Amino acid sequence: MITSPGNSKVKYIRRLQSERRFRQREQAFVVEGTRWVSELAGLVTTAPINLFYTETWAKVPEHAAILHQLNAATQPVTEAVMAAMSDTDTPQGVLAVLPHLPRPLPPSPNLLLILDGISTPGNLGTMLRTAAAAGVDGVLLGPGSVDVYNPKVVRASMGALLRLPIHSLDWDEMATVTKHMSVWAAVVDEDARAYTAVSWQSPSALMIGGEAWGISDEGRRLATGCITIPIQADTESLNAAIATGIILFEAVRQRTPTY
Amino acid sequence: MITSPGNSKVKYIRRLQSERRFRQREQAFVVEGTRWVSELAGLVTTAPINLFYTETWAKVPEHAAILHQLNAATQPVTEAVMAAMSDTDTPQGVLAVLPHLPRPLPPSPNLLLILDGISTPGNLGTMLRTAAAAGVDGVLLGPGSVDVYNPKVVRASMGALLRLPIHSLDWDEMATVTKHMSVWAAVVDEDARAYTAVSWQSPSALMIGGEAWGISDEGRRLATGCITIPIQADTESLNAAIATGIILFEAVRQRTPTY
């Protein structure tokens, strides 16, 4: 049992939680909470997982079952140590350290999400969760994005991080991956084509910009064209994660024959 | 200039920020930030507005123009007083106290959003912003909802609070308002009808439940039927605000002849 918040493992986890560069150097990140850990238990993976839990957490029979099912090095810690390790104000009593596990993109992706400069962690996490639910083949992150392994992104992504191929690419790499696809840049411009007026049935990528600045110049150069979601006059534009959901599920609608 | 955080106006505003009952008793709420205040300046209203600002904020010419345009009682405060009044960690330097201004529902609403037990303020605010952009005629809040005048809801709603008729109703009142409408309850159930398979062209209401518990028994009794957003197998269900956006904009799509 780890009892001291000064323990070197506690310090290691705190750095993984707070420092993007350290996560990059260690090629590791932290996931927290029962839901995340039970997601892990359902995955077939040979990746080394280090799991830390409080005795209160492990007393719940369902939690003990997760511990038993999971192929991980486990270690009990005190409540104080868990609080020191956790990124949240109210830790659930379990967290795990995982290696970065980037899944490869399929050779001919049919539907991709390109995120250009998303800087709000909660928004990025929600976009990943939404993209996984829509069944995209992968997510490409352009330069200037918040780190996908940021604890707030991990929290909001609800497991999508483990399921989706997510790759940080520069614009040249992005052009290579999307060579045979239509790339539609979502903009706030009432003169752009409606997102419902383009065909999503051929291989397509949706590009979404950050809330503050929208699509970058490089993003616009890569795009086949611009699309917009027509909204009621005199209202605020949509949140970028909401726009992502609306357009991706229009693509799903157009691709689903029974709809 | 108010210079003391102990000033009675500061205390009044702090209570409005933190106490739902106090907001209810006073029939007032607080909006913060330049964007919100410039929204107010664009509205024609005879409502009494009390505005507080720091001198740093008012020095910016665009801000001075807002102050000039706005029909409000204005009062400068020190940075420390603004910090005490504000609900945010990094106050922008301007906030206003407004009376509750419920807009009436139109007599024959064509598209409504019914929210059943939404307890996350940020999610509720995003739903209101999305509903305004989709052009709904109003939002009905069932019992158990977080207060729409909660500062986090106000912040995320981005002005939708001023534009939309938003009414807290009990289930009997809700039944009366939606008497001549189809009411579709969004559920997580792969056997329910797809949201794209029902017609949104006649008067319709979309009912969304809270993330934790979904639609209540009373909500289900009111509903004409259940609908769902089909998602990729083995992924987490969608965030409730994302689901709201996807379904409302499917209604807009079906109602827009040029799409």
In whole angstroms, the N-to-C terminal distance of chain A is 55 Å
Largest interface: A-B, 36 and 36 residues
Total count of helical runs of at least 4 residues of chain A: 12
What is the count of distinct domains of chain A? 2
* Low-pLDDT regions of chain A: none
Number of E strands of chain A: 11
CATH superfamily of the largest domain in chain A: SPOUT methyltransferase, trefoil knot domain
Radius of gyration of chain A: 20 Å
The main pleated sheet of chain A reads as:
7 strands, parallel
CATH architecture of the largest domain in chain A: 3-Layer(aba) Sandwich
Shape of chain A: elongated
Report mean pLDDT of chain A, rounded to a whole number: 93
What is the succession of H and E elements of chain A?
HHEHEHHEHEEHEHHEHEEEHEH
CATH class term of the largest domain in chain A: Alpha Beta
Strand content bin of chain A: 15-25%
- The CATH topology of the largest domain in chain A turns out to be Alpha/beta knot
Regarding quaternary structure, what we see is homodimer
The strand order across the widest sheet of chain A is 7-6-5-10-8-11-9
- What is the percent of helical residues of chain A? 25-40%
Give a topology summary.
The structure is a homodimer of 259-residue chains.
Chain A: H1 8-18, H2 20-26, E1 28-32, H3 34-42, E2 50-53, H4 55-59, H5 61-69, E3 73-76, H6 79-85, E4 94-99, E5 111-116, H7 121-134, E6 138-141, H8 151-157, H9 160-163, E7 166-168, H10 171-177, E8 182-186, E9 193-194, E10 204-209, H11 217-222, E11 225-228, H12 240-255
Parallel strand pairs in A: 2-3, 5-6, 5-10, 6-7, 8-10, 8-11, 9-11
Antiparallel strand pairs in A: 1-4, 2-4
Helix pairs in contact in A: 1-2, 3-5, 7-8, 7-12
